[in-house]
Amino acid sequence: MANYAVLGLGLMGTAIVHDLLTFDSSCKVYGFDNNSKQRQNLEEIFESLSDRLFIKNLDLKISEVSENHPLVKIFKDNNIITVFGAIDYKFNVFLTNICIHSGSNFLDLGGNPDIVKDQRKLNKNAQQANITVIPDCGLAPGMANVIAAHGMNQFDTLESCHMRVGGLPQTPKTILNFQRVFSIRGLTNEYLEDAIVIRNGEIKTVPSLTETETLTFPDPWGQLEAFQTSGGTSSLPELYKGKIDELTYKTIRFPGHGQFFRFLKELGVLSSDSYPKNENVNPRELIEYYLERYLPYNESDAVLVSITIIGTKAGKREKVQYKLIDLADPSTGFSAMARTTSFSTSIIGQMVTRGIINQKGVVSHESVVPEKEFKDALIKRNIVFTEIYS
Fold first, then answer.
1. Phi-psi map region of 197: left, alpha, beta (phi>0 left; psi -120 to 50 alpha)
2. In terms of DSSP bridges, do strands 316-327 and 28-33 run parallel, antiparallel, or are they unpaired?
3. pLDDT at residue 62, rounded to an integer
4. Is residue 384 predicted with pLDDT exceeding 90?
5. What range defines the domain where residue 44 resides?
6. Is the C-alpha dihedral spanning 57, 188, 118, 353 positive or negative?
7. What's the total number of domains in the chain?
8. What is the pTM of this model?
């Protein structure tokens, strides 16, 4: 019997809890959140499983991590084997240290390359603690990167890998044609930080919201746009530097979305600098507040994925494409974003817990997640990629 902890019981954390309780029938899950409404909501959703779900307040006042830290003691006292971080990425280094002291494996939803770099500096500490830490799980970075890595590993030589991923409303509304399906801070981070790509075999940085292209999906989606955003390539540039000519990740949106945010960025409206006439006003935080308040929320969504890889096999140039259109599930109430982000993270966490993934230290999902087991687990959750070879 495995004991898990899920930190953060919002959209993504709740879906992780659901997946753990559904696919590990003997486990116990400890859910943590500092919001009493979130805790109460989880209790109501999983009322019939109250003997396996234990909900606690989450106090995340960052302090020096030691054996006596409250979270370390809670994880040790409850024999927590694997911890999932479904909260703001700014806590991920802190939580990595917590898990090193408690001896618990740790997975997070990542999204910020600088934070991940700091986590990787703790590799030796994690190895000495005999734990596995996997940052940057989720959709992209996460599931899409694992699928891309599996695809690239089929080739003898590689020419290009282009990942295109996006979460879209099934019924577009507002000028942005967008709805809130994950953290707004995570969204603005993707649009503000530079994207990391491979060009001519070398790692390069490219400004986000640039290099917009047009792509087409089957009806009702039709013509969409995709542009550079940060974080999506995760560990792939480091893993495939010198092995592939070109590797890119772009976010899919309805046409015009990128132009709107480029306008805000160019005007400095997304700046974190204080407003000169009022030091208490931070333009980025103000914009995030209104986006969170007024964007449509909790309506049916879809996740679109297109990964195209070109290379050679046995001297012959070939192309493989991985396509996915995943829709919100009305039977469970989970959005497509929650399904693809949280279920895939839960799958990897369960693999770590069961010893299917046994590498210790701070590792990349692209290099440790086994292909067949991962795809089979996705299929059990009705997340099915179409593979096209040409």
1. beta
2. unpaired
3. 66
4. yes
5. 3-138+339-377
6. positive
7. 2
8. 0.93
